[in-house]
Queue: 2 jobs
Job 1
Amino acid sequence: MSQPIIEIRNYSLNFWTFDGVYHALDDVNLTVEKGQSLGIVGETGCGKSVTVRNILGLLPSPPAEVVSGEILYDGKDLLKALPAEMHRIRGIEIAMIFQDPMTYLNPVFTVGRQLVDVVLAHNRARGQGEKISRKDAETRAIEMLNKVRLPNAEKQMSNYPHQLSGGMRQRVLIAMALIGRPKLLIADEPTTALDVTIQAQILELIAELVEELNLSVMMITHDLGVVAKSCDRVAVMYAGKVVETGTVAQVFDHPAHPYTQGLLRSIPHPEKNVSVLEGIPGFLPNLLDPPAGCRFAERCPRALDICRKVTPVGNPLAGGHVASCHLAEELEAASA
Amino acid sequence: MLLFTAKKFLIMVGTLFALLAITFTISHVAPGDPAALAAGPDATEEMIQQIREEFGLDKPLPVQFLIYVGGVLQGDFGTSIHTGREVVSDLARFFPATLELVLFSILFAIAIAVPIGVISAVRQNTITDHTLRLFSVAGVGLPMFWLGLMLQLFFALKLGWFPLGGRLGLLTDPPTTITGLYIIDSLLTLNFTTLLESLHHIVLPAVALCFPALASIARVNRAEMLEVLSQDYIVNAKAQGLSKFRIVAIYALRNAMLPTMAMIGLRFGWMLGGTVLVESVFNWPGVGLYAVEAAVASDFEPIVAVTVLLGFMFMLANLAIDIVYGILDPRVRGANI
């Protein structure tokens, strides 16, 4: 068993809104081991992004409020880290790439300037004796742009973001995230905003760089195909809770939670010529006033009385596979 | 960038022509017969008619306008009745004082307002923010002339910290004229006594003139900073490990300055108009005071000239803002305007 690089434990988070307290995350537990990649899947609004954003302290508080839990990186709780400590972590230990490359680059600075600023900021935060010059930082930036296979890297340095296409900008953002040689990469739906053909290229690029730089990865997506292709383990989230975790094979081949089963059934199969796609009826519960018991009970085809009263806890199955369902064993066995 | 500037410049020439046409029309359709006024109360109909012909007032309005434009193009704005000099030479004498006051005021306003806006936004909804906002709401509400009088009462008469009015003390000689702006001229000639004296004199009128502008620039800047600070690229900058100072003072402020620049341009124009009030209160010998004195004497040529001059300055300021806009925002440079 290898060592965890990051561990999220009993993490609950609320948002203070005008309508009341929104229980965005409830008792989330996630672990990524060194060199591993974890896919986090779930529908829009289930808390995927919120879970990972606060790893780097990116949620403004208020309105966000951590209720309980810890995020352990290298044994240190990031939720309690001082600003100076976070500076030595952001981009240097843990880096992040985001969903929409169109809006994540500053429109009034050149690509080169933004990359160079990141290099210089990391250099300052590391606080090592040798100061890196602007010229060296530029060389590093061009190197990195070449590594993410941005065409004409040197020329692109003096271009502004609006002069680049979406795929090119995502390459720049990946370069920016990896220029500090981080150990953990958090990718928050990195391909959602891109064309399908570009999606494949970007995923391939990320996979290559992960291999080359020996990165651990947290990949958020709602594309189950992406997870199947590029992750070792997967966590399925629903309404602010992790409902099932396990290796990709465990979760996809033997889903032990009715929500996971529903998700997998809703994937269109080209060979199964169907006219109506299968979905999961119903809507996400209102998290301003979350239901008692299991949050999925309302929509669950298998729900029992107990499901509406008792919140299911992580039910350990064989080989580290965990599902938060009262019927987990039975479902796992049935799906075998 | 060159094309951008050239386009802006052409638009400006057109606007200036329109301004000239409007000012000219208003002054010529206004009630009252300048020929009768000039001829005096005892003049006969023939004498008035003769004056009309002499000044070209008997010609149709469009023809008069063409003649006027012809004069303006040659730098001739007519003659002032109450100073007895050419309007152009009067303007040359009084305009540097106004320019100095307005430039000093706008720089002062920007230097104070932008930090206020930034600090307010970063400390949103704290005591600091509320205090700074109270200050800026007050600024928008206070009339300039009233503020000017209060400043005089308190700082000049009661505390005696600043002089009541004027550009320099009675015993001080103006510096050698280079630009006509005393602060710059005394700096260039290394005349530090005069420099201090002119700074001392400009403080109160500049504060009175800039306060409303300062307040509204601060408000716009605060609102824009709040908007920009919630943008994705700021989240990304934070995630990549940039320092808070760099994020706020460079990455966010540069974006927030774009709409703020528009407000600065607008407020610069209002300031030019405000000089009429402030120069009167502080006896500042600029074109505002000149226009007021001309108006009291029913002397219309200077008023038209001052209006056109201030309008021209307003346009120049906006041209400057547009150019700065192009420098700050790369997306504007290539845009078709």
Note: Chain A touches chain B at residues 56, 58, 83, 87, 89-92, 95-96, 98, 100, 103-110, 117-118, 121-122, 124-125, 160, 162, 173, 176-177, 180 (CB under 8 Å).
Job 2
Amino acid sequence: MKELLIKTHEAWMVTLMASFMSKDAESKRVLNDFSDILFRHFTWIEKALIEDGIEYDYNRDAVPIKVDSLKVIVTNIIDRLNTLDMMLAMLDKEALKFRLQTDWDYMKYALNEIKDEEVTAFDANREYKDYNLTKEATDALTLFLFEEGYKEYELIMIYNYLKAHSNDDYLNKIFQILIDESFFHLKSFAEMMAIMGILGVPRVIHKSLYQVDDVTQFLKDGIDEELAAKEQCKELSDAVAKDSDELAKFFDFINYQENYHIELMKDALKHYEENR
Amino acid sequence: MTEMDREIIGHMANPNNYGRMEDADSIGIGENPLNGEKVIIYINVSKKDDNLHIDDIKFEAIACMTTVVAGSIITNEAKDISFETAEELVAVTLGMLESVPPEEAACSEMVAVALKAAIDGYKLSQESGEKQTVIYKIEQSCSPEQEFSAVEDKQEK
């Protein structure tokens, strides 16, 4: 079942990345919906592992995604679903098994219907829409997107792990909000990366980041990191402001969202301290 | 866009040799205790013509993107070379970094000392007959405000 978790994780990442590559609204929607479903599969398989007392982590192989045409990556996703299919024999949870099987069957059918299109998400054009960003602003934006794209993936995985291992409804509600928020940020940044031709899969996160021994310290560090992220958004907003009012407004919007994350994490910290 | 920009973006989007090596012969760690940044290098080693040789190398980074780029470049250089050449690579890298402002050197330095830790850890394991993980600490992060301190090493079982 551990291998099923790893391969589902990889299939989820490839499908999510494929949704960023596509410029066709309908294909993007289908791929994004399927990536959401694969993430949910991932969390259910994880829950089954925990129930059975099987140790696991979020390690996975690197997933190559650099393609020129969408059909190539879609075929790759179908191949991955076929591989997952062959692993189902290992699963003894009948309801979950049926759900996974029927989802994959439909996904394979629908993926086969997706129209091919040219993929430009890896051409490294480093232009965002028709804005004339200076070299300095383009470099700052590039580095920010790589750093923060990874960071959002890291946060999704950390909060997901904490949620999977906690029975505290109050904390889990906060963790779920933070997961949803990180998904939105990851999607926003990765869409920009695809337009700029610099799309990349976030690297594998080290287990010491999510297998947390000291939750109090983790939440305190998390608040500091959110404050640092706010500062980076502010710096980036300033760097691009003279070239693009729209980009500056977007990074201010992200910056202000971090305020709420900080409040949620302070709330989680207070609740954890009071109830442990 | 320059060729260098393109190459660096390639390392950021798809870092070479990134990930955990389950069957590593030696693991070395470069760490900044001030901010928790860390580079872990895994190596597989063989003996070729009586010389110890790095057959394969992987790395993981709990650090910024600049460190990931440095890890991608340095591990590429360190793959399929002898220990002697790898030690020269570490020395040359650290030597080059002496002329770079400390806050800019920290990322590459952490990778170089992690490679040295993996090499030294392998040698120590051979001597003692017990697997040893060596951690070399740097005391400089990618922040211009902090002062540079000399590299201090610590050995852990």
Note: The domain at 3-156 of chain B is CATH 3.90.1010.10 (Sufe protein. Chain: A).
